[in-house]
Amino acid sequence: MFLDYFALGVLCFVAIFLFYGIIAIHDIPYEISKKRNHPHQDAIHYAGWVSLFTLHALWPFLWIWATLWREDRGWGFTKIQNEQNELHHDMLKLSEQVENLTKKVAELEVMQVKQSSYGNSTDNPQGDEH
């Protein structure tokens, strides 16, 4: 008799635990959107409750929807594209600078060779050997 009541208690505990667990899981996208100050956080919250009735079929989409928004960059697509364009422009400028520096180094090497060959001929104008 005691074991019957104990089993009933365990069964009720597991049912309540699962019920609250499912409710806690369905609220994760809303909590993410609240943390990120999402402009559609109310819609995500209501869709999360609707998702309970669809056995969480909408939940992955709500999670994606909540995580796409970030307060510092918005949806992020145009800002990332602008940043990539700026990086590409900076890379072009840097490659031009490297090219110019390579030319200058080559010119300096040529000048050094000319000076060293000119220096050798002026050091010993009469051809005497030391």
TrEMBL record:
Coiled-coil portions: 84-111
Keywords associated with the record: Coiled coil, Membrane, Transmembrane, Transmembrane helix
TM spans (from-to): 6-25, 46-66
Pfam families to which the protein is assigned, alphabetical: DUF3302
Protein name: GTPase
The organism's taxonomic lineage, starting at the top: Bacteria, Pseudomonadati, Pseudomonadota, Gammaproteobacteria, Vibrionales
